Hints:
By secondary structure, the chain is of the alpha/beta class. It has a single domain, classed as Indigoidine synthase fold. Helices cover 48% and strands 14% of the residues. It contains 13 helices and eleven strands. Strands 1, 2, 3, 4, 5, 6, 7, 8, 9, 10 and 11 form an eleven-stranded mixed beta sheet that branches. Strand 3 and strand 4 form a beta hairpin. The radius of gyration is 18 Å and the shape is globular. Pseudouridine-5'-monophosphate binds next to helix 2, helix 6, helix 8 and helix 12.
Amino acid sequence: MNRYLSISPEVQEALREGRPVVALESTIISHGMPYPQNVQTALRVEQTIRDNGAVPATIAIIGGRLKAGCTSEEIEYLGRKGQAVTKASRRDLPVLTARKADGATTVTTTMMIAAMAGIQVFATGGIGGVHRGAATTMDISADLEELAQTQVIVICAGAKSILDLGLTLEYLETKGVPVIGYQTDELPAFYTRHSGFGVDYRIDSPEELAAAFHVKRELGLKGGMLVTNPIPEEYSMPADIINAAIEEALRQAEEQGIHGKQTTPFLLAKVKELTGGDSLSANIELVLNNARLAARTAAALCRL
Ligand code: PSU
Ligand code: MN
């Protein structure tokens, strides 16, 4: 086993016995939500995964260890530290680990550590992508490159339209990443079920998701599979309210010269500030919804 990796005893046992495990990211805890809702949500997500027959593995870097399976104390620690924890993408791993520092894992590093540990399914909220204006800023999330190379199923609620969703889909097409709509033909846009962009395939059951990934793996095709699971109707938000908040957030980011790794957390925090508690509860519900689907998909994968 990788000498920098620490797999929790519970996760290790489940993997050894061929039982389903679902990876979870930690940037959503430190940077994605305010304390204490972040910790409460992370623990509820873990419980939802258990209720649906799988073992949760919250992933983070703690004291330089790449952790697959955090304790509730570690989740509390990351949640309390919040934005003071380094948001850790692929390029941050060497220095953080050498310094024995902490890092909150993004989709990229969660996929990497999940794959190192042998975990094949990962549930989150939204992924990074091609930013609006990327033609001049070249701001493209490392998440897309990771999806191109690391064999993990990522279950999300699509991407927020802080991004250029059309260009994000083009990039994933170039990289050969299957983009699946779960029970939908349309890419969901996180808070809303509709984006106006089509997905590659619609799949309606966890069994078929598992079967497609299984074939991909058996063919030795590198890279992940992106499953986009729309937010449940009853929690989705009015598109005009969300879009107005996104436009305002983008305007403020431009005005304040926000760039690099700060861009996504800045935009997400602004959108939340502008839409109040509604967007936070929508965010929580869609993550729980993704956790349920991920647990059932991981279980189906174990049966193959
Ligand atoms: N988008 C969201 N919620 C998030 C993120 C993105 O709707 O929490 C986080 C994830 O951790 C994602 C990261 O992997 O931001 C992408 O950051 P960047 O755009 O800097 O690559
Ligand atoms: Mn970026």
